[in-house]
Structures are given as structure tokens and as C-alpha cells.
Amino acid sequence: DGGITQSPKYLFRKEGQNVTLSCEQNLNHDAMYWYRQDPGQGLRLIYYSQIVNDFQKGDIAEGYSVSREKKESFPLTVTSAQKNPTAFYLCASRGTDNYGYTFGSGTRLTVV
Amino acid sequence: GEDVEQSLFLSVREGDSSVINCTYTDSSSTYLYWYKQEPGAGLQLLTYIFSNMDMKQDQRLTVLLNKKDKHLSLRIADTQTGDSAIYFCAETFPSGGYNKLIFGAGTRLAVHP
């Protein structure tokens, strides 16, 4: 079955460490997105990529970095510059139609 | 700027209808969506409506769109305990060369016996 796989499901980070969240899709979608979800808030866009080797900052990109070397993969690195990284991170992809937003099951990142 | 607003909480009795409301600000919205999120999980697309439609029905779900008032609603008929979840309204519109997707804060639906 086609879908998006995020790993790990839970991740713990020490202060000052960089961590990378994985997002892989086999839907042959061109566009991929990273969102952050905090309790009681909607999803906020961190980065997006519409095509391989190209990506753009979203609304809250500071302290995050991404790469898009393959169509299937869009990893997100949470750097030590992100001062409040504890959150639920969701990856999504979209096909050529506007109702093709598919979400992964999320990664919960906690700073310890 | 663009914004999507929803009430944060709704409680209904099992078997009753649930109506979740949403307002949005951007008049250039192309599609509007309803997503469902169960605890600890990602978002599941429930239904969507194109901005030139007034209504869409899909089994127990009815979506109503009032474009003049920028108001979207989701009605769930015969609400069941399995419908308990957070429901997100979202709109997509062209912005800076791509289709931007903006979410509301989510409405937590609690279904009780």
C-alpha cells in the first residue's frame, strides 16, 4: 500500500543536540511538507518542497533544516538553534490534485 | 493575513448529530478540507469541498460552505464513540507560487453515551 512513513515515532533530544526526523513516501508525490503541532494549536508549516533538490521556508523555519535529494525522502533536522523543539512533527505529501494531501503518523520529539 | 478559526470543544450524545463550524479569511481559497486526528496519530482526510460548491455529502458526513460569509461546517450524522477525535478545518489557496495549506486549531469532539 502507498503511504508516508515517519520515523521514529518517539524521539528524545538532549539540550544542544541536532536530531533528524525521517519522512519517506512511496506515493510518487512531488510536493512534501513538514508541519509542527503544539497542543491547542493548528499545524504550522516549517518547510516545504515542491520538487527534488528544491525547498522553501515555511512560517516557522528558524532552527530547522531540510534536504530533498530524492523524490521519496524529505528529512527534517531540528538543530540546537531551535529553542523550543518539544512538539509533534507531521510530514505530508501532495500529488498533482488538490485533494491529495497525505499525512504520516507523526514523530513526537521531547527535549530532556 | 490568512486565518482559520474553529471552536475548541464540542460534546454530543451518541446517536445525535454533531456540527463543527469553521470560519476562514482568505477569499482566494480553492479547496477546503476536514481532517480527523485520533490521539497520537497523523491527520486523516475526511472530506473536501471545492470553493465553488455549496454542499457535499458523503455517507454520514455533510459539508456546507457559505462562501459569502467564509463559513464552513461539518455535520456528522448518528455520531458514534469512534468519532471522538480532533477535527481540523483547513483551506488551500495559491501563495507565492505554491498552494498554501492553512489549518485551524482543531475542534475536540467528545461523544458520550
> What would the principal axes of the Cα set say about the shape of chain B?
globular
- Give the terminus-to-terminus CA distance of chain B: 41 Å
Strand content of chain A: over 45%
Contiguous helical run count of chain A: 0
Which two chains form the greatest contact, residue counts included?
Answer: A-B, 25 and 25 residues
Helical amount of chain B = under 10%
- Cα-atom radius of gyration of chain B: 14 Å
What is the N-to-C order of secondary-structure elements of chain A (H for helix, E for strand)?
A: EEEEEEEEEEE
Rg of chain A over CA atoms, rounded to whole Å, is: 13 Å
* Classification by helices and strands of chain B: mainly beta
Features:
heterodimer, A: 112 residues, mainly beta, 7-stranded mixed β-sheet, 11 strands, B: 113 residues, 6-stranded mixed β-sheet, 5-stranded antiparallel β-sheet, 0% helix
Structure in words:
The complex is a heterodimer of chains A (112) and B (113). Chain A is globular, with a radius of gyration of 13 Å. Chain A is built from no helices and 11 strands. With 112 residues, chain A is mostly beta strands. In chain A, the strands form 2 sheets. In chain A, strands 2, 4, 5, 6, 9, 10 and 11 form a 7-stranded mixed beta sheet that branches. A 4-stranded antiparallel beta sheet of chain A has the order 1-3-8-7, with no helix packed on it. In chain B, strand 7 and strand 8 form a beta hairpin. Chain B contains no helices and 11 strands. Chain B starts with a strand and ends with a strand. The mean pLDDT of chain B is 91. In chain B, strands 2, 4, 5, 9, 10 and 11 form a 6-stranded mixed beta sheet that branches. In chain B, strands 1-3-8-7-6 form a 5-stranded antiparallel beta sheet, with no helix packed on it. The chains are: A mainly beta (112), B mainly beta (113). Chains A and B meet through strand 4, strand 5, strand 9 and strand 10 of A and strand 4, strand 5 and strand 10 of B.
